[in-house]
Specification:
By secondary structure, the protein is of the alpha+beta class. The protein has a domain at 32-169: Peptide Methionine Sulfoxide Reductase, Chain A (2-Layer Sandwich). The protein is 40% helix and 22% strand. A six-stranded mixed sheet has the order 7-6-1-3-2-8. α5 links the parallel β6 (127-131) and β7 (159-161). α4 (98-106) runs parallel beside α5. The radius of gyration is 21 Å and the shape is globular.
Amino acid sequence: MHIEMNDVKLWVLGGLIALATMIGCNQANAGPRETLVVAGGCFWCVESDFESVPGVISAVSGYTGGSVKNPTYKQVTRGGTGHYEAVEITFDAGRVSRDVLLAKFFRSIDPTDAGGQFCDRGESYRSAIFVSNNAQKAIAEKAKADAQAALGKAIVTPIVNTKRFYTAEAYHQDYYKGSNIVVTRFGPKRQSEAYKRYRKACGRDARVKQLWGKQAAFVH
């Protein structure tokens, strides 16, 4: 079959125009990028949960709420720094709203526990929502009130002012899907498998399901 060069050029041009149109539409539909910082116990689990939400662009594990600059994992988990293990969630506000994310957050933790979360105890594993202005505070307070009414129990998760967020060490990022071999109490395991075993052994999903029933979010 004979194809004229001009025909080929027209096909290529048409494809480029279609691609540009698709990109333009996607950009037009995209909402502003916003961030939400929450603490819900082990940051591996919170990161894993929220990266699965449509509209979430990224979830980064880190430390916030304390007074020590550039804290390390060992410092934070040892206690005394005032920092929480936290996750900074960046999301497309045109696809998912802050109030939806907060509703999921409350239903993915035990907000009645002031001493930590699940098997992880101590100040670094406490739950919290961090806000940077009155509008964010109002949304968080409404989400907390709604969650408390739905649960029928007092929620102790505080809403606190944002402090500097420090990104955790590289090996903590996306831990739940890593392929490195790590030594665990179950023996050497691929990182992703070690994460699954830890999550189950810690009782996170079992407790969330017990508390929230059909409303539970992210139960594996």
